[in-house]
Amino acid sequence: MRILVAAVEAQKGDLDGNLARHRAVLEQARAQGCQLAVFPELSLTGSVDARARPERALPVESEPVRALLAATSRTGVAALFGIAERDRGAFHITQLYGHDGRLGGVYRKRHLGEGEEGYRPGRDPGVFQLGAARFGVTLCAEGEVDFPWDDAVAGGASVVCFCSAPGLHGRRTDERAWRDGHAWWLSSGLGDALRHARRLGVPVAMATQAGSTEDEDFPGLAALVSPAGEVARLPDWRAGSLVAEVAADVTVQPVREAVRCLLVDQAGRALLVRYADHRVPGDWWGVPGGGLDADEDHLAAVRRELREELARDDLQVGPWIGRRCHTFWLGRWMTQRERWVLCRAEPFEVDPGHVATLSAEAIQELRWWSADELRAEAPSVTPRDLPGLLDRIACGDLPGSDDDLGV
Known about the structure:
The chain is of the alpha+beta class and about 400 residues long. It folds into 2 domains: about 1-245, 4-Layer Sandwich (Nitrilase/N-carbamoyl-D-aminoacid amidohydrolase), CATH 3.60.110; about 255-395, Nucleoside Triphosphate Pyrophosphohydrolase. Helix content is about 25%, strand content about 30%. The strands form 5 sheets. Strands 5-4-3-2-1-14 form a 6-stranded mixed beta sheet. Strands 6-7-8-9-12-13 form a 6-stranded mixed beta sheet. Strands 18-15-20-19 form a 4-stranded mixed beta sheet, covered by helices on one side. Helix 1 (about 15-30) runs parallel beside helix 2 and helix 7 (about 370-375) packs antiparallel against helix 8. About 40% of the residues are buried.
């Protein structure tokens, strides 16, 4: 599993700015081939004093949370992010897990630290699923105790994400003060991570708030600690990100073999299918295709899918232009391995009556799209760089049959 661990600024009361920073990190994670982005404790709301500023806390179902969950669908990167949660009359320090546009889990801090008297402790362990991989979460002051870590590993976590927002005493007025604050967190927070990684035999991914806020400063650290005590980390207290790989395979077995057929007309437009499935929020556009039947080869599957979805059996098929392998949620975790084939075709319309028969396959609409239209209207598409793929084809730069087309 490839993880991006982020040390980010989380300004108090600035939901729009914090949301924009999360979205930018998710785009960066997508560009670097990561499946999960780990953010600090209280990353979306900023650190909130629940007694003095309760209005800054958010319900789990709030609009900023929904907007960030939507970004996980658009980028194809799962996110572990933090809020000060308002749950009716109670407040929790909460880490939320989102993937494919949906909420995948909620962890409420179980061991509270100094200054967190306005919050209530949670009860349930923090163990989440990404494909076949399980990962745990602990929060800041929980580095001082064992039980949240023990419960995560007992729940099958093969990596623990340690998400923190340790406010520094006093304000940072010069570089020496920042170095001193950072050195304290290296000794305290990183020291806790080292102890638990060695004790439990699992890697620990650390994400810490960075920078100055209206009334306190944060020491900023992104790090990966191995069970042997090896540390990869950012060099100082400033905001940044670290890409790390851990031995936690997200691939779900058995892998589903599939084909996708990219139909392109003389103008370079692609015929795309709009999918809307009740098992996932939102809709998305992709190319015709589907899974192989038993004892069916890829070419036979292409021809069958073209008949089933487009009512056409006269289209010229070939060449093969790449592969994709992705793990996703569709009522359950699945991994699909696709071969893509290019078809050149005169533009045509599919009979609406035939399209209506495809609703059981979650197909709602078919439309010809140019690369420029996809960029301008920005619908959710798979793969995410489909406009770039169309540009390549228009220039005669066809991908090889084994090229990775990305998520």
